[in-house]
Structure formats: C-alpha cells, structure tokens
Amino acid sequence: MKKLTYGLVVVLLLATQGCQTNKQKAQDAAGAEQAVALPFPEPETLRRELDEDLVYSYLVGEIAAHRGELRLAQTHYQHAAILARDAYAAERATRIALHLKDYQSGLAAVRRWVELAPNDMTARQLAAVLFLRNEQPGDAGRQLDALVKIANARGTDGFLQAASALSAERDHAGAEQLLRGLYERHPSDVRALYAVAVLETAHRRFDQAETRLRKVIEQEPTWERARVLLSRVLSAQNRRDEALALLDDSVARYPDSVLLRTTYSRQLVDAGDYPRALEQFRALHALAPDDQEITFGFAMLATQQEQWGEARPLWQALRGTRERRDEASYYLAQIEESDGNDELAIGLYRTVSRGELKIDATMRLARIYGRTGRLNEAREKLREARIANPGRAADLYISETHLVQQHGERNEALALYQAAIDAFPDNHDLRYNRALYFFELDDFAGMERELREILDQDPDHADSLNALGYTLADRNERLDEALTYIARALKLKPDSPAILDSMGWVLYRQGDLAGAAKYLRKALALTQDDEIAAHLGEVLWVSGQQDDARAVWREALLHTPGSDKIQAVIERLQVDVE
Predict the structure, then answer these.
(1) Which of 110, 351, 420, 453 maximizes the CB count within 10 A of its CB?
(2) How far is CA 348 from CA 298, 333, 396, 465, in A?
C-alpha cells in the first residue's frame, strides 16, 4: 500500500469527522447502555487500515455531497460502508438514496446500516419505510417489530416511532395496513392502538381515529395524550364544542395535568373564549410558575382582558429574562399607558431595542408625545424610524398621519398624506385612511374620489366597497348603488360585523325592516358595538318593537356607558329607555 501523504491524511480526517464523531457518540452511549439489555447483538468492530480505495470513497462521498452531486455521493458512501463496515457511511448512503427516490439503492444501504447498527432505532424506521416502498410489507413489518423491541429496551415508545416513520408515506393504505398489523401482533398494548390513531389522524381519517382514541381512553383513562389528540380530532371535524367539553371534563378529572390545561386553554383562545382561557392560564401558572411560556400566555391574556393587576407582575417577572425582555417591556408599557402613567410608559417603550417590536414601541411612544402636546417631537421620532426601517416606512407614515389629524392642522395633515402617497402610491391603507379623513372633513366628494381610486386598482378591496356603500346609505343617497357595493363587500368578508351592519343599514334605508333587523342582529351577535346596537334599536323601534329596542339599547349601554351614538338615536326618536 502506498504511503499516504500528510496533506491527504489531514483531508481524510476532516472528511471523516462526522464518521468519527458518530463512533465516539456510540462509544459514549455504550457506557450508559451497559445496564440495558438490548435485543440484538452488536457486530464486532472490524479494524481496517486506511488504504487509498477507502480514503478515496470517503473523500468523494463528502465532496460530492457538499457540491450537490448526490448520485455520486451515494455510490461512494455505499462503497465506503462495505469496505470499512462503517454505520455512518451506510446511514449517509441510505438518506441520500431516499432523497433521490432511489429506493432499491436505499434498501441495499439500509440493510447494511441495520447489519452494522442493529439496535439503531432510526435505521429500523428507515428500513421499514424502504421495504414498504419496495413492496415488501412482510420485511417492513419485521423491522417495526424490531423497532418496538429496541424501544422497549430503551424505555421509549416504539409504536409511536413507527407511526412517525410512516406518517409521510404517500401510500396511506399500505402504511396503515402495516401499522395495523403491528397492533394485531401486540393487541394488549394500548400504545399500539394509539399509534394507529395517530397515523389515521395524520392521514385525516378522523372517524377511524376517533373510534380508536375513545377505545384507548376507555382502557387508559389517565393517558393525557389520547385525550389531547381526541380533542384535536374533534376540532378538525368542526366539532369544537365537543372538543371543549371533552377537555373541560378532562381537566376536572385530572386538575394537575399541565398538558391537558395547556391544550384546553389554547383551544379556548382559538374559540375566542378569552375569559375562560384566562381562568385556565391562572391554574396553569399555579401548577408551573417557572414555565416562561405559560407565564407569557397568562400575561398576554390578562393584558387582552385588561386585567392590569394580574398582568403587571407577570410582565415584570418576564422583563428579567433575556428571551422575553423586549416583549415584556412593550406590554408593560401599554399597561402603564392605559393606567395614565405616561412617563413610566415612555421609559419602558424606550427600552424596547430589537426588531419589529421596537418600531411598534416607537409608534406608541409617538402617540403619547402627540397626546401630551409634544407633536413635533413625536413626528421627529417617526421620521427617524422611517429612515432606519424603510420596510416599515408606510406604517410609520400612517402613524404620523393619525397624529397630525388628531393634534395638528388640517392643511398639515393633507400635506403629509400627499407626501406619503407620493412615496407609496400603491399603498391602499394610506389612500383608505385619507378617504376617511376626507369624510371627517365633510368632504364626501374627496372621500368618494379616493375610494374609487383604490377600487380602480383593486376591485375587491372590501373595506373601500363597504365604506362607500355605507356612506351612501347613511346619506340616504343612491341606495341601489350602495347596496351593490355592500353586497360585494359582504361576499368577500361574510363574517365582518362592520359589513353586516352596513347591509342592515342600507336595507333599513330601503324600507326592508325585517331584512335589516336580521343582518343587524347577526352583526351585534359577533361584537358588542354601540353603533350596531344604535342601528338595531332604531330598526326595531320603527318596526313597532319598542320593548325590544329598549332592551338592545340598555344592554349596549352596560358595555359602553354614555355612548354618544346611542344617546343620539334616543334623543332623535324621543325615547325613554327606562
């Protein structure tokens, strides 16, 4: 054998670093596994000197893989695995063959991998997959049996690992049949039944998965994961109420389960039931006070529900963590701002130092400056942020236009809008906001011109369609045209309370009181908005349903005491709501 040069040896060491690292890990793990009786005998390590053929195979395999020449890499890794009897090379050959969809070469490689590392669970998983893809289900099943034996020896769930390996297979029927066969060979192990349900869930076979999961829960009622998966299966079938009922019962049975409460709280958030979600997060925080993710969720919900007393200490605690410092400072500043502690809020907003949140903090900081008579300072902050963050420049322009509208002069606001639109002529938000500002200025022609400009560019801009239709209806002008705009907007956003309100209002203007009431009731059911309540009350009053109208207004005044919109309609109709 020719003597290897020093340089070639160095390259070889670099090229085979992954192999040596893998061997070292195996040696380290061997010490930890001495007490574990693994089911398959490990082969004796073959000692082989490095010759040019072996070095060449490793080198070409590594270099070709880095260059993306995967076919060449696979061939040479396979050759190295045979020459050196090295599991790392066999693994690399297997994975590359899978990537290339060369299942015959992959099967040859994985056979070698299993031979060299018979207790490697990943090798058994991929072997099962490759036997299945090569239409050898019997051999695939034997690999899953081996996987379960190895996992049992290691104290893990081999059935779930089998389901994981098969979950991405395109041959759903073949994968499910293979896993059902594994269950049939282990009918007394409830984990096998659960694994079948997991695979059926991945394949969106929810009916079958539900049946199996209910059987799992019947056999093992304390198994949290089965209850969690069943709740997700129910939600996937649009049976959210049943999912929530299941989780409610589950946390009542097992009140100390963090997993069940976490799942329940998240599904309550998804359902928009924030008060009940907050209750669950209170209990979760008591169970796991040091869990940052739970603390963060609790703080977010408490802030959203304006429970400042609960939210403040949570955010203060999270400010002490590096990962959540900026978020905690930002939301703590919002709480102080809401409580009227402007200077404290300003100081907190200034400490937000990174990313998108820093820009949002700057916009909120500018809002405080504008509200407290420091408009020029607010605008300067926003201009600096626009220069530093060109990707958010349009948003920062919008923030500045709002400030100048509220605290500046009319001509100043219009000039700023023009500069912003000149910079971003295709930004519909800027044009839409200017249209609304024209409405505030009682310039309906300017508003309509702006909205039509948006609709010329984007005929499906639902907010512009709604704004134009509602304004026409409110002015009692061109009602058929208004109805057309609102109907188009409603088709685009069928669950929008604002657009449903507009549809009710235009129908009212056209004299269709029953139709108007139907849309307005639907809108009010989606959001307790005082303007919608004012409209619905007026329609009911004019329809002769005075008691119902009073009830709607009284309920709305509980949510929005002193609402000027409700007071205006009550005074106009000369109504006594008491």
Answers:
(1) 110
(2) 20, 5, 20, 40
